[in-house]
Amino acid sequence: MPEISRFYGIVIRMFYRDHSPPHFHAVHDRWEIKVGISPLEIIEGEAPTRMVNLVMEWAQRHDRELMVNWDRCRQGLIPFKISRLE
User: Fold this and answer.
1) Residue 40 lies in a domain
2) 25-84: per-residue pLDDT in tens?
3) Before 21, cis peptide (omega within 30)?
4) How many Å apart are CA 53 and CA 75, to the nearest integer?
5) 3-class secondary structure for 15-79?
6) Full-prediction pTM beyond 0.90?
7) Can you give the residue range of the structural domain that contains 35?
8) How many domains does one find in the chain?
9) Does residue 83 sit within a domain?
């Protein structure tokens, strides 16, 4: 599963040829959430509020890039790196 971003210890990944709806995975320590891109929402998992807030803020800033990467992964192509949250 390609890593597309990393910030504050949170790793953002997408699976190649993953199932719909468009989404990404955010992992930090023992926490993992699956986040839908459009609409932006937690689909599965749980995490501390701070982690969720950071991931959602990052995703809002990069929604177009996330959809481009989703399309690339669905085609088996390497996704682009996305800048981290600063």
Assistant:
1) yes
2) 999 999 999 999 999 999 999 999 999 999 999 999 999 999 999 999 999 999 999 999
3) yes
4) 30
5) CCCCCCCCEEEEEECCEEEEEEECCEEEEEEECCHHHHHHHHHHHHHCHHHHHHHHHHHHCCCCC
6) yes
7) 3-74
8) 1
9) no
Which tokens belong to 75?
């085609």
The amino acid present at 65, given as its one-letter code, is E
How confident is the model at residue 62, as a pLDDT?
98
Measured torsion, CA atoms of residues 84, 17, 44, 79, in degrees rounded to the nearest 10: 0
What pLDDT was estimated at residue 86?
86
Residue with structure tokens 């953002």?
A: 12
Residue 12 structure tokens: 């953002």
85 is a domain residue: no
Average pLDDT over residues 3-11: 97
In a domain, 50, yes or no: yes
- Give me the pLDDT at residue 19, please: 85
Contact criterion met (CB below 8 Å) for 78 and 51 = no
